[in-house]
């Protein structure tokens, strides 16, 4: 049947239970033809209606051996029994705290996710507490002592040059000037990267596909993403790996 300018009113998708027809298959799939004659609630599948009816009739309910309360689902009964036994089978792998329900454990882990954001090493690795971060940091610096202290923020450095470079983030000093465009930089390395934009030089070539890059860091990311598949930055909570540091915070 067509009306207007070729518009079709045909509804080719028919429900085999109530014979109601639908224009779209998606509408048929979400259709709920099974009606509970006790409360009027509708269901997509008959077995769901049958399970639901047990609430009204009291038949075939799964009974709690402690209080006699009835449930239609085994999982609901199992969760309920924990309120009697006080058992907490779900344990947090970070702090060891235990929970009766898996949903409660998932909610709890979000606390650690926030904590991890504040316990990240400069190398990109994160840790659930400051103590583990400090142990990891010693692996970088070993027995070296940080002698140079920033008078602005108190941060310590191994070398005087590192301290001076850091202090420019406080003073705003930019002593390294591009001879071509006059733009200035706080770090000499940033100036070198900038100058490549003028010369179009790409000193870091990929040994696999010969594509060139302006920085070694860009080359490393390229190799991991397209050739090696390496993901060295791993979330300490779920174990998921990432190509670049800190990207897991937004995953």
TrEMBL record:
What keywords would UniProt list here? DNA-binding, Metal-binding, Nucleus, Repeat, Transcription, Transcription regulation, Zinc, Zinc-finger
Q: What are the GO MF terms of this UniProt record?
A: DNA-binding transcription factor activity, RNA polymerase II-specific; RNA polymerase II cis-regulatory region sequence-specific DNA binding; zinc ion binding
Chief localization: nucleus
This chain's source organism reads: Hucho hucho (huchen)
Q: Which family does it belong to?
A: Belongs to the krueppel C2H2-type zinc-finger protein family.
Q: Where is the C2H2-type domain?
A: 34-61, 62-89, 90-117, 148-175, 176-203, 204-232
Q: Which GO terms describe its cellular component?
A: nucleus
The cross-references to PROSITE patterns, in alphabetical order and at most eight, read:
ZINC_FINGER_C2H2_1, ZINC_FINGER_C2H2_2
Q: What is this protein called?
A: C2H2-type domain-containing protein
Described by its record, this protein's role is as follows: May be involved in transcriptional regulation.
Per UniProt, subcellular location reads as: Nucleus
* InterPro entries according to UniProt: Znf_C2H2_sf, Znf_C2H2_type
Gene3D superfamilies given in the database record = Classic Zinc Finger (3.30.160.60)
């Amino acid at each position: 049947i067509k009306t207007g300018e070729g518009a079709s009113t045909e509804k080719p998708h028919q429900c085999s239970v109530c014979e109601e027809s639908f224009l779209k298959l998606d509408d048929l799939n979400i259709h709920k033809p099974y009606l509970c004659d006790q409360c009027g609630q509708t269901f997509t599948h008959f077995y769901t209606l049958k399970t639901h009816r047990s609430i009204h009739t009291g038949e075939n309910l799964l009974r709690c051996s402690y209080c006699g309360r009835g449930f239609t689902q085994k999982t609901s009964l199992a969760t309920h029994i924990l309120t009697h036994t006080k058992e907490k089978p779900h344990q947090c792998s970070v702090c060891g705290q235990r929970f009766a329900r898996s949903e409660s454990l998932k909610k709890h882990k979000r606390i650690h996710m926030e904590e991890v954001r504040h316990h990240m090493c400069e190398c990109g690795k994160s840790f659930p507490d400051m103590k583990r971060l400090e142990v990891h940091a010693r692996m970088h610096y070993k027995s070296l002592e940080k002698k140079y202290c920033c008078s602005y923020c108190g941060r310590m450095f191994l070398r005087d040059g590192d301290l001076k470079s850091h202090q420019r983030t406080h003073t705003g000093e930019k002593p390294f000037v591009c001879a071509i465009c006059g733009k200035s930089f706080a770090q000499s390395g940033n100036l070198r990267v900038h100058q490549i934009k003028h010369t179009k030089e790409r000193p870091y070539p990929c040994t696999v596909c010969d594509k060139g890059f302006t920085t070694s860091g860009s080359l490393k990311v390229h190799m991991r993403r397209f050739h090696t598949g390496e993901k060295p930055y791993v979330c300490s909570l779920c174990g998921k790996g990432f190509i670049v540091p800190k990207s897991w915070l937004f995953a």
